[in-house]
Write a structure and sequence with these properties.
By secondary structure, the protein is α+β, with helices and mostly antiparallel strands. The chain folds into five domains: 4-82; 91-206, OB fold (Dihydrolipoamide Acetyltransferase, E2P) (Beta Barrel); 208-260 and 425-487, no CATH class; 490-536, no CATH class; 540-700, 4-Layer Sandwich (Metallo-beta-lactamase, Chain A), CATH 3.60.15.10. Strands 1, 2, 3, 4, 5, 6, 7 and 8 form an eight-stranded mixed sheet that branches. Strands 15-16-17-18-19-20-21 form a seven-stranded mixed sheet. Helix 9 runs parallel beside helix 11 (315-332).
């Protein structure tokens, strides 16, 4: 019989996380903070009463049920408190009176390919006649690359103009929801600031802990460069040792993702664990007496959190440090505890600090991987008994990789629609090499002030990182190194999570019925995927994407699709990846469609394009061109279902009406906003139905 008392934080975490999820994801139903807190207090009182009144053991479930409901509401209420929109001084509530804001640089400014990006924390609002008003809210700010922008530091106060633009929601099917991503971080606006738009107030109001962290990290980054590290080797070493990935090249990042080794570039449990084991070994002389053991554990705690501090206190290292802290504190008070309960306790604490962590992919992947390793690694390792020590060690590393992959696969499929084929091979090589990089890198940071020794150790770090980069590049070049387009629906994702939970419970509780339920859940997933893929063979329709500076119309028939696009679109890999591949994955379409240009004629079995007309699925699409202007109304106007306006063409709806019988005028996302407004105004004046693709993509006939 399982003793559930061993896992109190597991029992607390599940209902609390459910409350957080309900508040974030169920927008159709909302409780006010006052009502939520009132119900939660009432349930807490009920729990206290049941604890005293129902003293019989068989009635314990009543107290547990009431407490579970209380925790659900507590998670819901705490999440509301953390949402920016619920704050009384939220800046959007007073936006009409704002002339400019005083904002604090909230995050370390980072250099992007075309700008400098940081988060601003709004602190005061000023108007023409009103006195200053304290406000709250965070916005994402972008600066051009200039001397004044490069001089910005964390904590600097600056004045910026109002208003702040809202973040655009996803405009295309399957597109990454950047707005929701920022809102979970408390960021509800964005602004681009030219040099003349903002003023440095020459005041710094930084949190001393974070300021020390950033300054110390800059010193360590400079020491890495002085030791001979540069280019890709420097970028990877900075990411592995200090969690600083701003200098990581896109090509290198892509190689690590394809090889299934991206986790190595994140300061997380592996890095903290290596530091803990190394420091514990070096402090082994403190194991003789009781007070020495306590001192050793205290020093280990201080070292772990100091490392977390210099690594920027990123969420991944906070999770790892907190989990290890529970283990160390348990040893200090002679309460060994259970690792699963410690994992749940750390997750519970982090959710209490910031409930929005629940939907952060880094948070989910970290805990899923750790849980998979803790529960599944030993059973997987026991599949084979290998007498050769070297092969046995290799199999042990492989078992760790398989366990971590089993824990994270629902999330990688749902969030990234891809799977790294050679992750076992990659981790077999990368785990020992990364161990060398972390250890030698820590030594390098310690001796960076010693002239010749730092150079010698720097060569060792450079060599190890070079080997790592070579291995992942080689694995990425293998055929089929990464399988993309593996879309799963919300229902299938939920079923996979249930299947994973059942598998973990089967291993922990050793109940055969749970394995049968696990197989049944997987069967449901397979049935759902099969039905969805079968339905996609009969899909037929047109999708007009909403893309800035580009035109793209996708014609879908079954599992095939043809893309009508401008000549520069397919060369713009970032736009294709961000805005289009999600829709293709949802509909089981190839990431490499046949493309034909706006100016060329094209014909196949189900589509025909001649000049500016495209016939498909009984619909006629016309592409507007200034050369087609018609000053007088024709006796016979060509009936077209859709007339697509694109680029910087002169607004002339009257000419379109004279030559075409248009059912719907489409204004492409490539049309500048000032011209789009004129097109819309003219269409409204002539009673022509109009749709601006800047509001979102248009799907015709697709279900």
């Amino acid at each position: 019989m399982t003793d559930y008392a061993k896992y109190p934080f597991v029992r607390m975490l599940i209902p609390f996380a459910l409350g957080v999820w309900c508040c974030v994801c169920i927008s159709s139903f909302r409780l006010t903070p006052t009502v939520t807190i009132g119900i939660a207090l009432a349930l807490f009182a009920m729990a206290a009463v049941t604890a005293f009144v129902l003293k019989s053991y068989r009635h314990n479930w009543v107290f547990g049920a009431v407490m579970a409901c209380y925790l659900v509401l507590a998670g819901y209420a705490l999440t509301q408190v953390h949402q920016a929109e619920t704050q009384k001084d939220y800046y959007r509530n007073y936006e009409a009176d704002a002339k400019y804001y005083v904002a604090r640089v909230y995050d370390y400014p980072t250099e992007r390919p075309n700008s400098i990006r940081t988060v601003l924390d709004l602190e005061y609002q000023f108007g023409d006649s009103l006195p200053s008003r304290p406000i709250s809210g965070k916005v994402m700010a972008y600066f051009p690359k200039s001397d004044s922008a490069f001089a910005l530091r964390y904590g600097d106060l600056i004045a910026i103009p109002a208003p702040v633009r809202a973040v655009t929601p996803p405009l295309n099917p399957g597109e990454f929801d950047y707005k929701a991503y920022l809102e979970r971080k408390g960021i509800t606006g964005q602004i681009y600031l030219k040099d003349e738009d903002w003023l440095d107030l020459q005041i710094n109001n930084a949190n001393p802990i974070y300021a020390f962290s950033y300054r110390f990290r800059d010193i360590l980054l400079a020491s890495l460069q002085r030791s001979g590290l540069s280019n890709d080797e420097y970028g990877v070493a900075a990411a592995i040792l200090l969690g600083y990935d701003d200098n990581l090249a896109d090509e290198v990042r892509k190689n690590y993702v394809a090889a299934g080794s991206m986790h190595i570039l994140c300061v997380s449990g592996m890095h903290v664990g290596i530091i803990y084991l190394l420091a514990s070994f070096l402090l082994g002389f403190l194991n003789r007496k009781k007070w020495q053991k306590v001192l050793k554990q205290a020093l280990l705690l201080a070292l772990i959190w100091f490392y977390a501090l210099i690594a920027g206190l990123s969420p991944s290292i906070l999770r790892a440090s907190l989990m290890l802290t529970f283990v160390i504190v348990g040893e200090m008070i002679h309460r060994k505890g259970f690792i699963i309960n410690s994992i749940a306790a750390s997750a519970f604490v982090l959710l209490c600090v910031n409930p929005n962590n629940l939907l952060e992919i880094g948070f989910l992947l970290s805990y899923a991987a750790v849980l998979g390793i803790v529960v599944l690694q030993r059973p997987i390792y026991s599949w084979f008994v290998i007498k050769n020590k070297l092969l046995d060690r290799a199999w042990e590393i492989t078992a760790v990789a398989l366990a971590a992959q089993a824990g994270t696969i629902p999330f990688t499929l749902f969030y990234f629609n891809q799977f790294s084929t050679y992750f076992v091979l990659s981790n077999l090589f990368m785990t020992p090499i990364s161990f060398i990089v972390v250890i030698s890198g820590m030594v390098l940071l310690l001796v960076s002030w010693v002239p010749y020794l730092s150079t010698l150790v720097g060569y060792l770090v450079w060599g190890a990182v070079y080997v790592m980069n070579w291995v992942v590049a080689k694995i990425e070049s293998f055929p089929g190194s990464i399988v993309k387009g593996l879309y799963i629906s919300d229902l299938e994702f939920a079923l996979l999570l249930v299947a994973l939970l059942l598998l973990l419970l089967r291993v922990v509780l050793q109940k055969r019925q749970l394995f049968i339920a696990f197989l049944g859940t997987l069967l449901l997933v397979m049935v759902s995927v099969t039905v969805r893929m079968y339905s996609s063979e009969y899909q037929q329709g047109m999708m007009v994407f909403s893309l800035r500076n580009h035109t793209a119309v996708d014609f879908v028939r079954g599992g095939e699709h043809l893309l009508l696009a401008d000549s520069t679109l397919m060369a713009d890999a970032s736009t294709v990846d961000y805005s289009m591949k999600g829709a293709w994955a949802q509909r089981h379409l190839s990431y490499h469609p046949q493309v034909f240009g706006l100016e060329e004629d094209f014909t196949n079995g189900y589509l025909c394009k001649k000049s500016n007309l495209v016939s498909f699925d009984g619909k006629l699409l016309a592409l507007w061109d200034d050369a087609l202007q018609c000053k007088d109304s024709l006796d016979y106007r060509l009936p077209v279902d859709y007339l697509l306006v694109r680029g910087k063409q002169k607004p002339d709806v009257q000419s379109a009406v004279n030559g075409y019988d248009v059912q719907l005028l489409l204004i492409d996302g490539s049309v500048p906003r000032y011209l789009a407004e004129k097109w819309r105004a003219q269409a409204e004046a002539l009673n022509m139905p109009c749709y601006d693709l800047a509001e979102g993509a248009l799907e015709v006939g697709l279900r």
